[in-house]
Amino acid sequence: MISGIKIYKGDGTLKQEINQAEARELYNETNKSAWELSPTERRHWDNMTVKETQPYEYKGLRPWIKRSYKWNKQYKLKCIMCKKEMIKANSKALICSTTCKNAHLREVRKNK
Ligand SMILES: [Zn+2]
How much distance in Å is there from the Cα of 49 to the middle of ligand 1? Predict the structure, then answer.
């Protein structure tokens, strides 16, 4: 069943109206080649369709991994080097800063 065809322009205005009889004539089996895509044309249009990609895997992103680490644990500890109080997320932290860390390493090497 073919009804009348209305062809619209890109902006939505009516470009052409084909009535039912004309439409039936257009889509007649006898002139099928006029409106059916040839195999090469079909392949061309099939290639135009965007294949569903896996964007996250493609980009190497895994959104299910939460990357913004929340600093919700705070431990009040004392630095073993400068004896200052520090707040760390790790309860087993011993040293406050890199300068203290370097000093600590130096001392460890001395004691060896
Ligand atoms: Zn320190």
Answer: 61
CA 92/CA 49 separation, integer angstroms: 56
**pLDDT averaged per 10 residues in sequence order, the chain, 112 residues:** 78 81 75 76 80 63 69 86 90 91 92 82
Dist. CA 40–CA 37, nearest whole Å:
8
Q: Is 112 exposed, middle or buried (0-12, 13-18, 19+ CB in 10 A)?
A: exposed
Q: Which residues surround ligand 1, an ion (CB under 5 A)?
A: 79, 81-82, 96, 100
pLDDT at position 103: 92
Report pLDDT for 46.
Answer: 81
Rounded distance between C-alpha atoms, residue 43 and residue 51, angstroms: 14
The CA 73 to ligand 1 mean position distance, Å, reads 20
User: DSSP 3-state assignment of 1?
Assistant: coil
